[in-house]
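Chapter summary example.
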Amino acid sequence: MTGTVASENAWLLPSALTAEPGRAGRQPRRTTRDWIVDSLCFLIAFGFVILVSWDLHQRDQPSPLGTIPEWVLTLDGWISVALCGVLWVRRRWPVQLALAALPLSLISTPSGMVVLILLFTVVLHRPLRVAGPVIGLHLLAALVFCWLRPDPSMSMLVAMVLTVAIMISIVLWAMVVRARRQLVVSLRDRAHRAEAEQQLRIAQARHLERTRIAREMHDVLAHRISLLSLHAGALEFRPDAAPGEVARAAGVIRDNAHLALQDLREVIGVLREEGAGEGPERPQPTLADLAVLAEESRRAGMRVSVRERVDHAEAVPTGVGRSAYRIVQEGLTNARKHAVGAAVTVTVAGGPGTGLSVEVSNRWPVGQPPAQRIPGTGTGLVGLAERTSLAGGRLEHGRTDTGDFRLAAWLPWSA
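The structure predicted for these 415 residues follows.
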């Protein structure tokens, strides 16, 4: 195992499931489960060695080469006991230890349990292309063992069939355990990926929401601040205006300043709170609010005419109506900034199935621009293009052949 696998669930992910044979890497600490499993394997193998060695000493052991001497049986037992010790490190070198134990598979009976545990570890911790040849060599050695050390209680054919059945059972068991562990690892990896993707979706949703809020605030604040600038400019250039006009202009400035501050306060509150959206949102403008928007501009001194030829205007979808309102609002704001005093024509037409067309046009300014122009960010039309694209429509803007500046958009309106 590598260091990254050693975690609270490390027992579900042995090193062979992520590393190829011979891969160098620092071994992690043995877990409690590893200690329990290794101790149990050692006790089973050690007990098997003791019982089989005692049984072999109680009866003669014939072979094709003659009766096996007593000292050979004793040496076999001691070697098998020593072999039990390798079970503590079998996870680190499973293939090497299995190959080192191959000669004992030819002649030793007490070491049979240790060999089976080593083969189980090889199949569990290494891919089949590596474990297959090792299993084949041990199977061949086991058949040779059945000929060299025949069991007097059964025929050689039965002994061979039983040996093959035991080894196949061990291999299949190890393959089942390996497949289960791989499934657990795969499910855990999917769970981690799903959690990461969920966090990414949440972050993207927050980013999109904040972008939407920023776009809305640009449209709203640019409109109101341009009205403030226009009225303030009128007061500056008409210091001799009648007191009633001055008071009316000051009232408009005050009202728009309060509305701008309210909008700014709301967006700052939303951006500061992670749980934005818990309370109801302020009603968004729709197509029915175009008259109010045009009246605000007229009170600021603009010449605005609105032409509406919309069939079933009361059935305009909310999103389409809001987008149309923002397009007209940005067009009026740009006219105040760049075409002071020019007449502005707003045309809205369409119906279900044909879509909604919105057009804002004004004469191209003549002469030098005013010395004190209303500042802007230059991103208003970019935001409108993005808004229109997200709604499935299209946006055009630029100078026409007749010398007008035209801002036109088409928004889909299904029947």
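To summarize the output: The first helix runs from residue 32 to 58.
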